[in-house]
Amino acid sequence: MPRFLEPRVTSQSLPDGRIVLRAATPLAAYSRAVGDDLVHWAGAAGDRVFLAERDGDALRTLSYRDALDRVRRLAQALLDMGASASRPLLVLSENGIDHALLALAAMHVGVPAAPVSTAYSLRSRDFAKLKDVARQLDPSVVYASDGDAYGPAIAALGGRAPLVVSRRAPPGATTIDDALRTAKTDAVDRAFAAIDGDTIAKVLFTSGSTGAPKGIVNTQRMLCSNQQAIAQCWPFLDERPPIVVDWLPWSHTFGGNHNFHMVLRHGGTLTIDDGKPAPGLVERTIENLRRVAPTLWFNVPAGFDMVLPHLEADRALREHLFGDLDLVFYAAAALPPTTWRRLADVARAVRPGGVPMVSAWGLTETSPLVTSVHFPIDRAGVIGVPAPGCELALVPHVETGKLEMRVRGPNVTPGRWIAGGAVDPIERDEHGFFATGDAGRLEDPADPSRGVVFDGRTAENFKLTSGTWVLVGALRVGLIAACAPLVADAVITGHDRDDVGALVFPTAALSSRGRAAAMDRLRAAIVAWNAAHPATSTRIARFAVLDEPPSIDAGEITDKGYLNQRAVLARRAAVVDAMYGAPGI
Asked: What is the domain range of residue 494?
């Protein structure tokens, strides 16, 4: 069992009904800038591998010493190309060593790094979101890993900034090798010395599911204070450098902030997984996990679901994966009970005591960690207690009676990026807390140290015509679990209608069966759910299977597979109307 911080929490009730939770352990001093961590490890463990990635059948590696040297050279190249605090580096690339070096180089000299979802470049048809991101940023430099793969996206940007490319560079572009030949000058050292906690390190874009993507400012203080909080929650990280194999995209706060900077903060080794939880790609993940045994395993529920069959069928693989694993960490979505049990079973098959399965909660605006599970839990749903330095307020929501989670601390963003480097301040309540729109409740109101349970989104909930509230988050998760393994995701319907319905996105397990048999099996699962949950707010009175996958251009889904309920309902309004015009279950 890894060594965890004792989950002691203080609780304060205020006159407006809110409960404010804080870690009893204060936040310790933290780094001035993420570049300080790189400088430290280049000196303290310069030969240790920092980053590794697949290069054909071989593994390309980069030590901490070499990483710092290349970061300084690339930082000079960026300055020479006109990069500045007001004109960020725009990254159109999947995770990779060159991507990491350029992003670290930008942050090293006070230039914000702005990695955007590869879906905006590779899966979009109109590049509308990418163009809007570029308009907001007015980038000084654009980086693309592959000039051919990202060629249409590059063309859509219209040559608005100098281009750096790793492979197959188009005419006029600077290759990464050419940029690395740049000699560092004192300008790099002066720029690095001028960085402080308010310096903008990154601009991370929300999915834009309900409109144009919004650039969330991430400062050096946010990133560094958050990593210090994680270090205090998981002190075992200081006992041996973490080894991580990870696919989670750096355009998102989970992979790009929580995981990448955790490895850097502790002098660990990150092997970049070029697979992902998708047919034809999960096999790459399996190959990478066979090659490197991690000490921490991060994933989203869909990722665990796709790896589990391989672990259950292959004894050598599960012994390799779980043999030296400190913990399994899931986040970003609820882990279904069936997935939890299967993970626990394969872990116990290797280690009788099992491997701790933990989680956390946070947002892009909180860089990301707010609550952390650093204590044993026996089921999904608990998202932990506030990490050191993070204050969590549970505020009564007038309409639903739920408790909205609001956050205050050094990890909270100052606001959203405005072209030219200005910041549009984020809204805070009268106590200075950022309202997240997520709801939570205490696992045990008499003992806050047992943690907070995620309770859905306050904005997703709606009323039936009877005036009954439907709590969408819990209903959606329960329905998906009840219909496993047939339903990949679901959107709950019924706003201002008489009963609750569901739009269902099928899994391959459902799609691969005969249509009639598939519908019969799904209907039977929903009937069983209704028998156990007969209330009008939980009974699924009707459903429709959506044959068309969710559209990223229409904002229905992000590249990590998260559905936006509102966008799906708006785009599929005709399907919803037809569903309610037909007989129910």
From this structure: 462-581
